[in-house]
Structures are given as structure tokens and as C-alpha cells.
## 1
Amino acid sequence: MELYGNRFSLHLLCLLLEITCYTCTTNVTDNVIIMLMDDMGWGDLGVFGNPAKETPHLDRLAAEGVTLTDFYTANPLCSPSRAALLTGRLPIRNGFYTTNAHARNAYTPQVIVGGIQSNEILLPQLLQKAGYESKIVGKWHLGHQTQYLPTNHGFNSWFGSPNCHFGPYNNKDVPNIPVYRDKEMVGRYYEEFKINKESGVSNLTQIYIQEAVDFISKHSKSGKPFFLYWAPDATHGPVYASPSFIGKSQRGRYGDAVMELDEGVGIIINALKKYKLEKNTFVFFTSDNGAALVDKSQGGSNGPFLCGKETTFEGGMREPAIVWWPGKIRQAGSVSHQVSTVMDLFSTALDIAGVSPPVDRVIDGRSLVRVLTEGTTEDRPVYYYRGNELMAVRFQQYKAHLWTWSNGWDEIKMGIDFCPGEVVTNMTQHELQNHTAQPLLFHLGRDPGEKYRIGFEAAEYSDVMQPLQRMIAEHRSKLTPGQPQLNMCDVSVQNWTPRGCEKMQKCLPRPASNPVKCIWPH
């Protein structure tokens, strides 16, 4: 009996240990990877209907995950969109807008004085509470002065640049953009980090891929959860790709860049599988804004949607979005029509990490965890801002335009057109038009291209606009705009002396300060 009792106790102990171990493994905090492309359009991926079918890795990601067809950015331009993602707040709240002119897009070029404010709480800062280590790879674009850089806002490590890869510059009137390793520069674009604008050749995407893989490898051994913010910029003009991809796409140089990024996604996913992290890693792929249609040889496709980057039409605001979360999503290969935004990534990541969002401010993002794991949906509005103006609102399938504009005649005369070949009366004109007294209403299910407005006299119009107007009024009544950060420019704040320039003997003479109001033409 004693022997039997000991065996029973041993069996019970083993069972308890097994349950404990199972509990430990199933309660591991999931890693978070956000892949944010630059100027990539809704129609650039095979899974979203691009006829070239040159994105096999992303298409497979969708087949194994969830495709979100109604996913939106928070602004049709890079910097405000990225600020919204990392704060979970509309740019009008977090300060990434301008009041220098009405309804103007603004961003963070080298001359900008402002950047992400210290009172804004970014996603990596909150994830630190759950033990996450965070890394950004690629473009930051939330301010380039030291106090604005990512390692001062919650990111443990960084490889990339604070600005777009514009250039080359002469380092006298304008300095070339620095590339950073964590807190110090390790070179400049067009110097140590080559981009051949004529041939389109650059190895930057390969470097960004390797940075991501090395970070995943490191954390496969540490056991700590991680947040990887992968933000390559090859599809932003001037578009580039590595030599093995140049000339590979039937879509030209832009297609070459897309194909290389697609392969990069595949390599990163394979790294997760190699290190057995695929079962506890949440991956979200999207873009910062719609494809830039200004230069068709270096711009993407927005599919059936009107216009592109810089506009609050669907082509500028609706983005490709794919979620890959093996074992967690309700059904692999499913499609969700849940209306959602880039700000939801903030709330979703916090939900996954078990971290509560700040309660002392308005958070515009909502967690998508139940949408992805249970297939639930909810009706919610989307607010389309251009600078300091609410341009449009979507609720369910209806979208009401309060203001419309593409860009001005002065730019059109210079060949800059945000809606090339697309003319829709009272929509794509080159003067800002006010429709607040009688908004233009479209049904995006029947008319995704926003070409056929619902008549003012139609019963459908009044039935829809009455609740929409109440929604708009409530939004405005509760809105407290943040201090605008994109108003002032100064040549002296450009990247003359980035931290680390002394070690490389790459510091440049700084001109005298001359602060002026930035000019934002569109």
C-alpha cells in the first residue's frame, strides 16, 4: 500500500508539473511585429488584386492569416500617419499637423523644428511595462533632433534614418541624411549608404532585412518578448532595389522594390519559424499612406480607389493590411471587413501584451484582438483629416465629404497632380471646396471609387446624413487639438551635427538660426 501510495503521489506530482509547464508555455507573452511600408498602395499586392502577382510571400501570409479590406491610415502623409500608429491618437490630437494654412498636409523634413512631444506616450514605452524589448528598423520620421529620436521614446535599439532618403545634397546648403545605429550616426545616405538614383540600385532593403532577422535571432535566446517595428522605405521615391531585383518586375522599378520587400517579409517569417517563435508572434503588415501617383514610373497602385497619397479620398487613406498570427486567429485565409485604422495597432499590441492604455488622454485606437480571434465586427466611424481640417467621415458603407481638394493649380502647372487622369466633379478640383452645409455622400460598397454621389434629394441621403451629422458634431465637441508641431522651420536644425559625427569626422558647419513659418503647399 505504501508503494502504491508513493506511486500515486509521484503520478500526481508529474501530472501537476505537466499542467504547470503547459500553463507556462501557453501564457507566454506574444511578440509583436509591425511591418509598415512606405507609400505602398492597396492595389500593389497580388492578394488585393494586382494582376502582376509578384508578391507570393505576402499572398501566402494572407492565405495563412487574415486580410483586412477596410483598413485606414490616420493621415494621407507619412509623418502624421506614423505618429498616429505609435501614439494610438489622431494627428490633430498628438500635434502632428500644421495651422500655417487651412487643410494642409505637413511632415518632418530636415528643416522642421518640431517632432514627437515628450508628453506623448509611445507604444514601446508602454510595452516596457510588460518586459518587452523594442527595436525600430528603417524610417522614423517623427523628428530628427536628438530629443525626438526613437531611442528617447521607448525604443531600445534602432537602425535606420530619421528622414526620407532624399538627396544627394552638397553638405553646404543641405546636409545628406544620417543613418543611425541606436543613438549615434554610422554614415549618411549617398555616402556610406549608397543609393544610385539613375540605376535605382541600393542594398538598403537587404540591410533592413538582416537587421530584423538578427533581432529575432537574439530574442529567440533571451526569452523576453519583443516588439519589432520594421519600416523600410524602398517604395518611397526615389525608389530603389538591390542589384538582384533591378529589372525583375513587369511593373518597373517600383515593382522591383515591392518584390524585394515581399521577399524580405518571407525571410522574416521564415526566421520566426526557424527559431520556433511563429506560435507566439503577432505580425501586422500595412502601409503608411496610399501610393504616390505623382510619378507613375515610381509610384504604386491604389486599386479601384480614387486618387492617392496626400488626398483624403480612398486612394490616399485605405491601406493594404494583413495579419499573421498562427494558432490565434479564428480562421486562416479569412477576410475581415471590419473598418479599422492604423491607430488600432497601438491598442491591439497593448491588449496582446496585457498592458492597459493611458487613461489621462483620448486614445482613438481600438483593439482588434476579438475581431481576429473571434471574427466579431462593430460599427465605428473613421475620421479623415488633412492637416487641421476634418475632410470626411465614414460610417458603415457611407462616406460623407465635408471638404474636397486634390492639389492647387500652381502645382498642376509644374506637373504635380495627386489625381492624374481622374476627374470627378466637385471632388478632384484644384481649389479647396467647402461642403459642410451639404456634404457629398457616397456608398463605398456600391461605389468604391467615389465617382457617383448620392443625390441630395434622395431619401437615402437624408436617412444617412442625419445620424452622420450628429456623429460629426459629437466628435468636434470632444476634440481638443494638440499643440501643432509642424509650423516652424529653420535651416540651422538640419542634420549638420548628428550625435556620433565627431567619431566619423562627419560633422558639418551649422548656419545661423533663421526660424520661419514652414510653407505647406498642399
## 2
Amino acid sequence: VVNRARAANDMMKLSLRQSCRLSRAATVALRRLSSSSNSDYKSQPEVFQRAKRGKFSQAQPELRNPFIEDPYLQACLVRLMPSEVVGDSFSDLGKFGSRIVSEIDRLGRQAELEPPFLRPYDAWGNRADELVTSPAWRAMKDISAEEGLVAIGYERRNHQWSRLHQAAKLYLYSPSSGLYSCPLAMTDGAAKLIEVSGEDFLRSGAYRHLTTRDPRQFWTSGQWMTEKKGGSDVADGTETVAIPQPDGSYLLHGYKWFTSATDADMAFTLARIADKEGRITEGTRGLSLFYLETKNELDGRLNNFEIQRLKNKLGTRQLPTAELLLDGARAQLVGDPGRGVAGISPMLTITRLHNSISSVGAMRRILMLSRDYSTKRVAFGKYLADHPLHVQTLARMEVEVRGCLVLLLEVCRLLGLEECGVATATDRHLLRILTPILKLYTAKQAVSIASEGLESFGGQGYIEDTGLPVFLRDSQVLPIWEGTTNILSLDVLRVLQKTGAAALGSFTDSVKSRLSATPQLERVGLTSEAERLKHHLDSITAFAVRAAQEDTPTLERAARDFAYSLAHIYTGALLIEHATVDNSMPNDRVTAQRWCSRPLPLRKAADYSSTASNMDLMLVMDGYGLEQRSQGDRH
């Protein structure tokens, strides 16, 4: 054993001596290498020494005037507006596009980087409820007034086309707004509610502030509906109580779980009026609509409510969203008691429209940036724009954006007709059924396009410093706010049930009318696409009639696919119509062809049967509760 240990020790010493000799040899070789005059060994490694990062930096995507760079928007407006309105609107939109590039987009980014925060108490322990927002956020309020982003819809200088002008301007603004588009949505909705309600005290006061172009007088509005029990189910989820006062006002007591644009100047909210004994009426019949101003006029303090906390959200971080404790907030009744849901409906119509504007605007913007980047980024020896697969992906996104845009502008056109008193019964039915369809469809597509858009930038699309991930984080709120996809799908069914065959008949007649221009269809080569849409229309109409007659739950289970199919058909008809006008472009035909080649989302009736529904439940619940049951068995 001793001999083996000595031998191992001798071997170790030998190995160390050899290692030292090798180390000295390596050192000499490196010195010779560093003193060599060969440029391959001398200059290249120095590029990456210490602070040097190499000579390459990737050019970033550039935002150019979003109106000038969007010929499809221009073509759609030309088709929908008379020439004198086109001239006035285009002048305004072009100037606004320049302001977006030079000023607004930078402010929107600043608002993202400087999110709001709450100071609940002052230094001396007094309740302060001070909501601190970014200077950029406050600047957006002034810009919104100056540009008439709400006012355009109510000045109606361009008559029934004013809503188209306003929508186009908001579509350009929204992706750069730092989410100030959200308070503008509720402000526009509040103005619409007041206009419809006919309440004199609101018309002479709040309405003027909501629709002014004077930044010193401009107000924004909140919409306080969601409580702890949930959002869409206001009938069973609203617990706020309104106590009548001798002067005719009410004191509100409740907890509002989710209030966006908490820095607004006013708000509309729902509550249940208590009688002298403190009793309230449950359900929808017990809900009344109230108006309140958020601050007391005399001292500027909050109107008897406390900001409990700001929400920590996935996206929309620029936007102050809070939980509020109403502790005697003074409010005024709007409309008749028990008519709160009906009273606030006009506001919801407008906010859903704004949701769609934000959806389509975000889709267009991420595609614009991706398009520009494809001309700057080199991969595998050529620009991304020279890779057919990359361009194919962007082209599919482009078709989706164009389809969503024509549907959006059509709903805005119908709203303008209604507001100016020139809408037909068909127009009104279409507006009612297309509004939830537009919102649910564009919101879902916004998330998909935002995700695909980020992927087109590769790793840079995942880096927050680029500002690109904001598109995806902010777009995720769009299918949730103002009704989820399923809630809105059921709303489409309610429209059909309330109007009988009228709404579906108006939808069918409108599609057929847009597909009836046979000579124009033949001229642009879209006859087969028109016939395909007509076949889809017959199928979906037959499905709706059969399901309503045989099994009402079948139609409810199919509601989502049914609504998507309506969106697919109507958008296809609009794209074909746009492609058949005299000044259409070859790209318009290609867009219509590619849209109409898609399969209809609606399946056969058996897929929505009670048997299929039971199978759905079995699939979803497979394995659920096994751990609890196994623990119970052991006990």
C-alpha cells in the first residue's frame, strides 16, 4: 500500500512538471501570436474588447404618417363619403397623422413608462387619495380636446359622415395614445347617453364639457358598473345602494370593483334605490342609472368615495384603474327608477364601437411596423421582405386587417345614419346586430394579429425596451372589456329573438344586395366568391331557423360559431362590394378572394346537440376532483 501511494505521488509530481512546461509553452505561443503582423489575428478580436460591441446595430422600425401610409383606409373613405366630405376629412387626417409621428406617439410611450400610482395618505396621516398620473397622460387630455376626438361625432359638421371621420381619426390615434383612447371611449359613450336621455341638467352642464374642443373646459367620463360579483351580470352583481335625499339627490354606498379612467371628471353608474325602510328591489328591475361628478366643486376633494387601490393589470398599465369605496357619494338620478340597464345601453353601444376601433387600429399599426422592419432586417443573406414565407405571413395579416376595417367603417356609417335621423328600419336592425358582431370578432383578431406581429420581429418582439410587447399586452383586454366573446355571442341571439325575423332578414337582404351586381362581379372575376357567400348565407339562415324551431339550447351552444360566421359572411360581402367599384385596385380583388376562400366557422347541427354538450363537459371535467376524492378515501 505504501509503495502504491509513493508511486502515485511520483506520477502526480511528473504531471505537474509537464503541466507547468505546457503552460509556459502556451504563454510563449500566445505572446508570439499577439505580436504577429497578421491582421486576421490582430484586428478582429479587438472589436469585441471591453466597451466595444461590434460594428452592427439593427435598424429599428420607423413610424411614418399612418394616414398617408394607409391607402386602403383612404380608398374605403372615398367609397363611403361624398367628395366634399372627403376633402375636408383627408386634410384633417393628414395633419393629424403628422402630429402622431412628431408628438403623440412619443407621449404615448412616456405614459407607458410612467404608469399612475396612488398616494392614499399624506405625510401627516390624513386620507389623501391622490392619484398621480404622468405628464404625458395629462397632455393627452388636452390633445384629445384640441383635435376634437369626441367633439367631431357631435358637431356633425359633415352630417351623417361625421362618425366616419371621427372613427378614422381615432383609428390613427389609438395605437399611439398611451391608452388614452379608453377614457375617450367612455367620454363619447357618456355624451351619447346624455343626448339620448334628454335630461336638461345634463345637456346644459356635463354634455358641453364632454364635447368641447377647449382643453380648459374638457371633461372625461368614467363608467362604474363592475362590482365584486362580476361584470357582465349586472342584474345579480350590483349591490350599490342609493339613499334618497330631501333635495332630490341620492347618496351612493357600495364597492366598485373595476373602474377604468379613475381620474375622470364624472361618471355614470348603477345602483338600487332604497325605500324608507331600507328595502331594495333585486334583479334588473331594481337597477337605476345615476350621474355623479368625481370631485366637489368647492374644495376639489373626492365626492365621498375612497380609492382603495389601483389594479395591477397584464396590460393597459398607462390607464388608472381602481377599486372604489362609495361612502355617500352624491349623485343624480338619470331617467326613471328601475330603468338603469336600458338607460346605460347607448353608452355601451359607443364603448363597444371604440373597442373595435382600438382593435383594428392596433392591428394596422403592428403590421405597418412589421412591414417597415422587413425592409431593414437581413436574415440568411437577404431582407425579410425577400423571403416568400415571411411575406406570405404578412399578407395573411393584411387580409385580416382589411376585412376588420371594412366591417368597422360600415358600422360607423350606420351609426351616423341613425344619429342624423336618416336611417331606415333595415339600417337600424343592421346596426343593432352588427355592433356586437364587430366587437367580438375584431377583439379576438387583435390578439392574434398582435401575437403574429411580435413574432415577425423575432426576439426583438419579446423585448420590452422596443415598445413592441405593449401591443400584445394591451390587446388582451379587448376581448374582455365591454363583454367577452361568449357574452356578445349571446347578445347576437338576443337581438334575433327580440326582433323576430326582422334583424336576420335585414342581414340577409343586405348581403344579397351587395352581391347582386353581376356585371361588376364578372368584370373583376369575383362571381364564384359571391356564389360561395350566398351558399354560406343560405346555410346559416337555415341553421338558425331549424335550431330555433327544434331545440333552443342548440342555438345557444352554437352562438359563438354562429356569430363568427355572420362576421365572415358580412365582411366578405363588404370586401366584394369594395372590389367592384369603378376605382378599385387589383389588391382589392385579391383581398376578397382570399377572405371568401375561408371555411365557414359554423358546423353541422349535431356538433351542438345535447349529446355533444355532455361530451364537452366530460372532456373538461376529466380528472377534476380526483385528488380530493382520493384524500377522502384514505380518511
## 3
Amino acid sequence: TKRQVESLGLECELKGHTSCVNCLEWNTDGSVLASGSDDQTAIIWDALTHRKKLIHRTGHSGNIFSVKFLPQSNDGLLVTAAADGEIRLHDLSRSEVIEEFRCNEKRVKRISTTADMPYMFWSAAEDGTIRQYDLRQSLPNRDMILINLRPACSSHAEAKCLSINPTQPHLLAVGCSDQYVRLYDVRKVTARLESQTSSTCPDNATVHYFCPGHLNEQMTNKRMRRYRQFAVTYVAWSLDGQELLVNLGGEQVYLYDISDIRRPVHFNSMSTSDMECRSDDTSSAIPSTVEPMSEHTMQLKLDGNTAFKQQQYSRAIYLYSEAMTRSPKQPVLYANRAAAYLKRQWFGDVYAALKDCYTALSFDPSNHKAHLRQANCLHQLKWYQLARECIRQFQQRFPTRAAKSQELARAIEEDANRSSKSKESANGSDAEHTNSTERDFQRLAIDFKYHYCGHCNTTTDIKEATFFGGQSQYIAAGSDDGHCFIWDKQTTRLTQVINGDDSIVNCVQPHPSQLLLATSGIDPVIRLWSPQAENHDRTVGYASERDHTDKSHFVRIDKIASDNQKRMRSDPLEIMLLNMGMRLGSMGGEESGDEEEAAVQCRPS
């Protein structure tokens, strides 16, 4: 329940590793937990007694990045992947390595398995390959390159993560060193490989690409690309296999619905008939399709308005979002939340505001505030041609309000002309070439359903995000500031913040059946979190949803999230020095607290 999530506290610390703990894995029933570390050992823990069952020397010569139990092996077979480019299969009953795969040229970052195929597993490596391993085959045919990202994407493409869909095991999601998640049909790839020797993925094996709509277009801005590097550090499926969660390095956490094909939003234009049939005098009227708000919804809206006036924009966003769960077709709620997003200006907020304006206008085309904010969003996103058309329609649709749009219209024209000249001088000497099929898939990438803000993911490329709760109703993710963040999946409300590590939380793994969360990172310990009767020192906490007037917790949490946004906007050298333990006076021009940052003891991933 929400109360249980809000009462999460530290249950215990598992101590046994001597360096960073990079990966965690529960077995099927949650009775044991496996961990892998920079100390090149894997430890098997008893979940009930919290004691070590086995300290296993893996034989790796590099940091361990992934551990997986092979399904239906009675927890006796463990697969590990490491920075030495090797994958090893271990018999835990004998505490020995029974097979080694040395086929990758660079670090292997993730292993994935599926319960339906206990004799197979898959890997993602920084040489750009996705490999499939079939233990039924005789040597040396047990592994093959399933997908090679480099021929299509770029010569420097790196595979960072992968995950098999739990209900449709033929679907494989892959995260790479860019902002796109690629979804493949393994059956079609395998059929191609069995008939040919080519490792190039056939076009019909690609099901979808997924990418936040603003990042798909933003890559045309080469100056922005130079200072912001994206990488998908983790992908996870919901229990029913319908939702895909993505932790995007350099940005936020995004959720995609694979059954809901959402195309990127540009702007909600009005037809000529719409503009002719509606006079300016009716612009404030409530359309007949909009139902009146309930008393509680109205109170949430008024509280959101108050928070907005007090410049508490995150609080306003959460209140408007909560009101939307009760009245999902109220255009004023979307228009107001768009205004709060535009004021807050966190990564992804401008595009989120654009989506809200689009929705508000679909419910009420006469909402002049949503239309003008829509033009503002397009301008800030640097989509100047669309911004021009949007502001032109606004002035035509609302002639008595045209004066309010003159300053924005001038700014759009000036920036559009400046951008045009800049493109001419650049003369096309920009991004690395990708093939036409890859560009087509990128252009058709599916947009996100929800996004979750507050954490920071810029330092390591193994940072996880996962579904949490019996019905996958929560989202949890690690962060560069040492916290673990937990959001309500539907409202995107930040529900809990936990002090999971003295430096960085990378791993966040929920127990398969209990409300129990395992976290790890730079510290050489694993922390288990469960509902507690009393708050603990390592729990930051959050205001109860039932009492949204309680501001004390919200202010504290909002400052943590705001500081993370400043961290994400900081110069990469500054962040590197910060994580080496050098205290900097401020980030983004403001003090970020009095506590000293702990030095990172392992090489950032």
C-alpha cells in the first residue's frame, strides 16, 4: 500500500564485499540474493537470516557488472559478466567455474534470462553486440552474435543493457549508448542467422524504437548534443509485459506502453472550420464535453494554484496530476500543469508542457492560454517553423489577445533567422552518418507515456530503474546523489526518498513477492529496505498523500530533486571532480548543502 511504501526504512546491511557492489539478483522465490562486485567475487545471501551462504571466487579479472541465476537450476547455476569481456557459468554447489565465454571484445554490461528457456541467456556488451548463448549446443557453437548494432547505428555504438519480455519472450529490448531503446523479435533474427552467416539484424526483426519526443528532434541541435551525452543504462519490463521502463543517462526515467503507439507531439493545430465557427468572445466558455469538477478535484486545483503562486512548481505539478486522476478530461488542469512545467524547467519539462497543451486543446480548442503556452513550448524546444505556425494561428484565432503574443512572435522570428544562418554556415558537417533504415526507425520512435523526475543519472552507466510493488504500481531508481527515489507510477508523484549510499546508488532490485527492496552502489554493502514502524536516519521520507497541505517534507524532498537537476546541468569536469571527493562551492550558482561528498572508490562506469 502507499502507506507501506511511505514507511520504508532500513531493515539491515549485508556486509561481505570489499568494493563497489554493481549488481544484485533475487532468485525466483526470493529466498536468496546474489551480488557481484568490483572485488570480482559473487556472494550468495540468505534473505531470511541476512547471512552469507557462499563467497564465490568468479575468476574474473575485471569488475563484475551482471549476475543471473539460470532458471530451473534450483539456484545452482549462476552466470556472471564482467569488465574483462568474459561471461562465466558457475556451479554454485561445487563453487567452481564450469564454462567460460571469451567472445566479446569489450566490457559485458548485462545478462538476461527468461523462465521459459532455462538453457539460454543473452548478453549486451560494449563492442556493440547482443549475443545469444544456448547450452544445448556443442562447443564452439554455444554462442552467436544475435544483433550487431554498429553497422546500422555507428562505429562506436555500445550495448549497455537488455531485457527479455516476461510474457512474450520473443521480444528483446536493448539499450544503447544513445537515447533510443530498440525492440527486436528474436524469432526473426534467429531465423535469419540460421539461414545465413550475416550478423546484421534483418529489418523485419525490428519491432519498434522508443525515444522521448523532444530528444528525437533535439539531436538536430549539434551544440546541445556536444554538451549532453545520452545512454540507456537500464531497461525493465512490467509483470504483464505491456510496459517498458527506461533509465536514460543524462535525462530522466521514462515509461513506454508497447500496446499504445504514441507518436511525438508537435502542436495541436486548429482547422479553418474550427477558427471560423468559434468567435473570440466564447474563448473562455466551458465546452459541453467537459464535465464539472468534483469538490475534491476543485480543491486540489486551487491548492495547485496556490503552490504555483508561491513558486513551488513541483508541488503544483503533483497537485494538478493528482486532480487529473479524478478528472482526467479537465483541460484547465493540463493547461495549468503546463504552466508549472514551463516555470520549473527541469530536463524534459518543456516537452511535457507541450504534451499537456496538446491534450488541453484536444478537450477545449478555445483555451487561449494553452494555445499561447504551446507556442512558447515550441519556441523553447527550438522547433521554430512549428512555433511560427502556432503563433500565427493564435493571432488569427484570438485577435483581441494578439497583443499579448507580439513579444513571443518577435522572439520566435529572431531565433528562427539566427538558427537558419547558423545551419547555413555549418554546411552539413555534423553528426555521424547512420544508414537510412536506422534513421527511419528513429523518426518513427514511439513517445513515452509517463516520465519521472528527481534523480540524477550522469556518472555511471549501470544505474537501474525498476517496477516496484505487487502490481508494478511504483517506480524505483538509483541516483548519483546517493538516494533511491520511488514514484507513484500513474501520478508520477515522488512517494519516498531513501539514503541508499554515501556516494551513488546504482542497483535497485525489488523482492519478487514481498515489499522488500535491495539497493547497492559505491559502498561495499547491500541495504535492504522494508516497511518500518519508525523512521530511520537513512530515510528522508515524504509527506503523506492524504495530507497534501503538509509542506515540510515536500520542501526537503523538492530541494534534493532540484539539486539533482543542477547536478545534471553542471559541467562534466565539475561533476567528475565532485565524485572524486573534491568539494565545490556551488552547482548552478546555488549552495547544494553542507555535507561533504564521499569520494568514489571505484572507477565510474
## 4
Amino acid sequence: SVITAIVENEVMLLGLSTVLLILSLWLLGNLMKHLRTLSSYSHLPGPPPASFISGHVTCLLATMKREGTSYSLRMKWSIEFPELYLVWLFNTPQVCLTDGEFLHSYFSQPHEKFLYPFLGYCMGHRICGYESIFNEPGTAIWTKKRRKFRRFFSNFHERQWIEVIQQHTKRLVGHLKTETVVDMEDVTKRVTFDIVSHLALGSDPYSVKKDSVVRHSLHTMLSTAFRRAFFVVRNQVPFLDREIKRELCEAVRVSREYSKDILRQRIRSREDKGGGGRDRGGGENGVGGVEDDNCDSASGSRDDMLDMIISSNEADEEAMIDDVIVFLIAGYDTAANVLAFTIALLLEHPKCAEQVVKEAQQVNFSSKTWRGDIPYLNACISESMRLFPPGPVSHRTNTTPTTLGKYHIPAGAQIQACVYVQHRLPRYWDNPDTFSPERWLKRTSKNTTSNNMTSSKDDVTSTWPAPGSYIPFMVGPRNCIGKNLADVLLRVVLCELFSELEFSKFDEKLVEAQHCFTLSPKNKVLARITERMN
């Protein structure tokens, strides 16, 4: 027995030694790899890392804990390093472009998109997978999908968009006339969800009257999950926060079940009618939808987003559900946030609101030049998206070595554009933190689109804003596919609201933002409402 005990101890020591040796070799390998990576990026400028192991993560998290976001620190770095700067997220290099020309040049190229793991799978549950149009990193597959979906977002459908948006906004106005004080952020999210559901899916959740369970679930996936600090860590160790896991799992279940019901109902309708046809889109539980006017009765074909999703993913139901969830979240949340911020800013600046009212009461949406009839509202929306861009950051994966000016960026780095910071850099904007729609009216002679307005400043060759300084919809092939629809939705909803209702600020809280993957108001946007006497 003594010999047996000695042998067992020797075996245990040998096993432990082997484990320690393997662990040491793994750590040594990673250390050598990290040192090689450090040497590859040593020529790039940037703030000194706080730690060899964590890099800049410590100071970024400290700023986030103190202020809610890390934008003030990134603003400081962007001013100190006016072209680009390097930060380390543990052993991952992140190159942040601050020069507008560099940013515009790099993001205009077809680089692979940076994959957001928490949008694919979270805590063992699939949110929108890794192959949806938003999360698809491969350029070839993504290009094929985007080419098909782009048809839905063509300005060819503008007349139909306006009719649907007016229908839902007028219904909202009818409800608001019975209220006295409302949270405009909540109101805009409800009406935008109804509009996007109608246009993209042919359904009518009617969340303006009674908040949709699905909308609440989508909101939970963003607000409850993505706002938590160390979310990626908790993704790997979910028992650290069981409540967030329970809420997120229920939200994912409801959202995917709703998407599955709508998809299956549409697929059955297409099969019954020989591949397509006029049908009623599902409401909250697949029933109670609205008739979609955008349908060719002769061929039985529809032209909404749901049919395009089905035709592009016919063999994979889970992939179709991924795309439905992506378009619901991206379509309603970003536009609703821009509406909420714009209304909040107009509440703080009543003189600006008065000019918006004058234009809103006179605009004629049946005219082909209706956008030109609301120049001040256009300026207010542009200024709102400058101060509070719906997508505050954007990333790409640098898959091949890249040269920007005198800087060589090796393959493998994350390339970041901090849109929030670019929109407030003093070298591009006078009084960058001030809401001033008039800055846009000074350059109206050659305005083109709200994404990048080109106009005469001192001569006809000048460009304003400077390339890369105003990018609310980003630039290049992976820019926002829904920007045409968003432009129409924002203007029509605001015109309908301000022409029918009178808004006044309820409290003295200033407009502040919080980063929840998208940028949303930190506080409730409370407003007193009275019916406008025309």
C-alpha cells in the first residue's frame, strides 16, 4: 500500500507538471505572439497603454464608469493625434481614424466588416447569427444580399412610403390629442416600429395604442443587454448575472417566434398562390395585419422586404429569421432615436421649433420637390444627426495590409471610425457642441444629400462638410442601406407632428445620450402636448 501511494503521488505530480508545462508553453507562445504584434504596430502614434496586459482597456472602462461613455477620452486622443491613433484592447490592436480624408478613403473600400459576437449568439441563444446582412463579414456573400435588398430601399417607392408614414403618424396624432404629457422617445419608437413593420413585413402591430410585446423584446435586447458593462465577459460566464440572462433569453425567444410566424405565414401564402400573392401580413401573433398595396395583382408578386428575405434564403429558415430581426432593429430603433433627439433639441430651442412649424404647415408631399420646401427642418435633422449620430461608431477588419498617407497598417487590426467624435471635432466645426441649424442654411446653394452635403463655401470646388467629418449613415459600400427610407420617414413624421400638435418642454433636463449599440436619449424626452389651433 505504501508503494501504491508513492506511485499514485508520482503520477499526480507528473500529471500536474505536464499541465503546468503545457500552460507555460501556451503563455510563452501568446507572449511571443503579442510581442511580435507590438513590434508590427510600434510605428503608429497613440497614447501610451496603461498596462502591458490590458492595454488601454483600464482607462476606457474608468471613463465609461465615470461618464457613461468613453467619448470624452476618445475626443482628447483625436485632438492630440489628428490623423490616427492606436489603442490596445488587451492584445487586439485597434486603429482609430481621425483624419477625415483617411476615414473617407478607407471606409469607401470594400473591406470586410468587423464581426459583433454579441449580435450573433449570446448566452447560448441565437440573436441574428453570423450570416445576416448586418453581421456577414464576407464581401462576396454580403454584396449578393445587399444587391437584392437594395431594391426595397430605392426612391422609386417614395410615394408609397409617404402614404404609409402619414397613415401611421396621423393615427399617432389622434392618440396624442388625448394626452397632456408624454415621453416622446417612447412615442417615436412605437410609431416607427409600426411604420417599419408595415413597410417591410406587411404587418401592423398597432403599438401606438398598445405597446407591442415584440417591440419591447427588441428594445430589451438592445437596452437591457448591450448597456451592461463587461457584456462580452458575461457572455462567456453567464452565471455572473442571471437576471440579464433571463431577460435576454425571453426577449430573443419572443422576437424569433414572432419572426418565424410571419415568415411561415408568408411562405404558405406564396405556395398557395404559386410563389407569391396578395395576403395579409401577420400582426403581433401572425394575425391582424394590413393589406399591402405594393403588390402586383397580375403576377402575385410583392415588393416588400419579407419576400426579398425569403427569396434570398429559401433553404434556411434560421437565416431568414436573422434578417427579419436585423431589419426590425436597424429599421425602427435608429430612426426613432433621431426623431427623439430632434424633438428634444427643438423643445430646448422654441424659436427653431417655430420655424419648423411654419414649414410643416405649408409642405405639400404630393409635390416632387417637397424636400426643398422644408429647408429649415432639413437643417434641424442634419444638425440633430451631427450632435447625436444614430450609429456612433463603426468598425472594419483590416484583412490586407493598408497604407494611409505615411502610415502602414498591418493586416489583422480593427479599424474604427468614432462618428460621434468626428461630428464634434473643433477642426471641422465651429462651436461643435452647440445646436445650430443655421450652419447648414449657409451652404444650401449646392446641397445634395443629408449624408454628405456638397456646396460652395468660398468657391465652387470646396466641399462642406469636409470628407469624413459628417457621416451619420457612414460611407462606402457598407453604408446604411436604409438611408433613403430614413430620410423620408424623419421628415414626414416631424412635419405631421408639428403641424398638428404644439409641444413644450415639461422639465429642465438637458439632452444627453447613452451608448446602447446605437445612440439613444439618456433621460425621458417629456413634453406637454396641446392640439394646435390652425
